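Review box. Two proteins, two foldings.
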Amino acid sequence: MTDDRLTRRRALALGGFALASATAGCQVTSDGGPTGETTSPANTDADADGDGSGDSPTGGETDVPSEQPTEDDGDETGTSAFEDLSVGAERVASGFTSPIGLEIPQVGRRFVVDQTGQIYLQDGDGVHKEPFLDVSDRMVDVSGYSEQGLLGLAFHPAFEENGRFFVRYSAPSREGTPDGYSHTFVLSAFEAEPDGTTADPDSERTILEIPQPQANHNAGAVAFGPDGYLYVATGDGGRADDQGNGHVEDWYDAVGGGNGQDVTENLLGSILRIDVDSEATQSPRNGGGETADEESDDEPYAVPDDNPLVGEDGLDEQYAWGFRNPWRFSFGPDGRLFVADVGQGAWEEVSVVESGGNYGWNVREGSHCFQAEDCPDESPRGRPLEDPVIEYPHGGSDVSGIAVIGGYLYDGDAIADLRGRYLFADWRAQGRLYAAREPDGDDERWPTTTVSVESDEQFGPMVLSFGRNPEGELFVCTTAEGQVTGETGAVFRLTSA
């Protein structure tokens, strides 16, 4: 084991060096691919990440909006333009089906997550033809319009030493998932092979399983926080309104449901926080509030003692709740947690999330009462319903869309105009991005504006996710399809325009 870890660490370190060294001689052919590259998905630029240089994830129903935005709503909610911003977009990889994630744990090694079940490594040799990991044989079938699939990837902070990483995927219903449910949410740990170019598919260890009532609102993002704990986003279970089969009753009577406000019956509609490096203080949850049986004495995770519901009425894994479909989250340079939550029929939102925070769904959609003229501003526990820092409507504003795609607070050097701005998008991006800046005063809402994108290749028109390299530079994953099909998925590196 010691020799394997030393070999793995050396391989992982050398892999990043190889990509950085390879860039000087990389030629690009007229068709956008590197000279001599035959990999698929196609590599179109294998230069370094930082050497100095579901289909829709949404389920954004349009059936019953909570409030109908007007032309003036953009200014009132802080979405009026504050400056003229533009960026360049250089395509660095293509040929994917639905690239819903990009993780760059080391300089020179990009890992592209394809919703169809594969993780592809891009290094100095381009995009490897053989996937780094393929879990498609463990997933539900994914095709057409789907919010299921391989939805999240997080590398352990000590990946270079231990080779551990974590994935989130949609599996056929497993033991403990009630009849009539759609599938099972699975969070698993894997280990990379010693050479660092592939993972051992037999190394899977299931960390968490959550029964999913419907096929949509799966969220899926997983990431390690600056505290070393693993954060996991879960949707409200699917369907519309947070109602129906698998959606429990909560404290709010004006609107039926739902899982977003419940913290005692299941782990849906929440941000979870678990410790994957310590022995469990209790048997792991199966996601429904019951404890799961484990064949091994080694429990897969522990609960941090300072999680907000430890010792209170509620499931200990909960860190924050009141979410509908949190599609992508990230930690800023100062450690703040930014969570984008896809709305239903009227409002999209991004919140700065704190421990024990209740972010409103399905009492509110954004900062607006959902399907009610009036609504409370706190829960029976006395916890306030937190407003988002960013929200935009489904129409009537320059900044508008149907499904928010969470991004990053930019702290790189390549694009001076974006430094300190939160860059994000809508799924229906139509060739542009959005940027928000933190207000100087006491304003709750961050002013937000559009960002035009200049590229020699087709950019989107759909945006699926963002990625960030160790130097703080940003990447965007796009597709030309509204379904999980084809090979139009691509990864772009953002540059100055």
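Next protein.
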Amino acid sequence: MTTRFSTNAIGQSSLLLVIPTLLFFPSLLDLVPVWLTFDQNIAHGLFAALMFVFLLVKRPAEQTKLAPTSLLAVLGFFTFYVAWFVVSVANIDTLVYVLLPAVLFMLFAALLGWQTAWAYKAHIFTLLLAMPIWQDLIPYLVLVATFVVTNVVGLLNITAYIQGSNIELPYGVLYIADGCSGVRYFAISLLLANTIAVLNSYRLKGWLVTLAIGAMLGLLINWVRIIALVLIGYYTQMQSSLVADHELFGWVVFAVIALPALYFAPHVAAKSSNLATYAGVRFTKPKIWLLSSTIVLSCFLLVIEQLPTIQKPQFQLQTTTPLVALDSTSDDQFTSQIFNAPTGETIEVRQYQRSKRAEKLVPYVAPIYSDKKWTRLETFVINGSKVDVMMNRVTNKREVYTVGYQLEQRRFNSYRDVKLWQIPASFTLDQRFALLVVKQECRIITCEQTAARITQTLNSLQLQ
């Protein structure tokens, strides 16, 4: 059985909005609260999502003939959908949000054919920009900003001592931290560039060039902002209010650089949607069954997320040497215990259990040391364990620490590994997660011996 669904511009846009909404409404329910928080790293998310809807309606891809059903596209859609379903059950948010645009592209290919789906590449990229994944770029953007800004400041005729990401002026210290990554300017510049490309119907080369220019402008805006703040801090002896509160100043710099670029962007007259042709969608019986079954699976996902979990007793710390208990605290997420070892190490045990399956099996773990107060001097890898040497920005005190992770009875040396194991573990009765933090002050020139000692201590700890 084959049913042809003929559409005009509005009909095709509506079809491409309704079906994905039905398929991915579990993710949509998670995304809307994130967008409405207007966190600085995803403040553009709601605007990007609305822009995706606007571009689908305003610039739908023309379809001159009814595309035959592609078995490869249908299988690709099903494969990506199953992958999305699995990581959704496992609550791996980053993978869920990365897979969403990929599944959407395969859905468009299954419904409209490869050629028409490819014409929607920029529309789908708009949706990717709405996903809360851009904070993962922050460490890399900070590294790039640090390299550029410190080198430029070094060329300026001002007195400044540059140490890593710290710029010490005679009147105070400026830190290039996560807030200086410029991820907001970068993502919004990409969004504006992508929107220009879609509205002007740029071809592939023009689209890629426009995105490259948008990315460079986003980076440039942030670099100019930081360098300007260094100069303002220097010439006002750190007394300017902009040094402490430069949120508005950043957007002024953004407007000064981005608005002229928007104005001078090449304009291409697009064909009116009334003159374009839209052949419609061919719904075969297998395609109808596939869409129906995936929508049912999405409903089932919501049911799974509301199931309660069986609470288990907390881990008990087992050691070969007696420890002195120092403190015990709890918050909305972790229950923590702090101990002191006879050899001088401080040991912290943080434990967590989710109360329902909608919660993460492995929760977010904040950095052990705040980058506003501490800077990383060096990193060792000893027997697979990562050991960092941190220095207090004010007192120059050095501390060495390492972290181990445990999910039920499995131990991991990195947070990334335990997050990946969360996927298969989500389909079992695994419930308990813990991390072990071992740290000690380093009072000698080199911290290698201290790093080796705390690694040995970490390996001797057992949670049962």
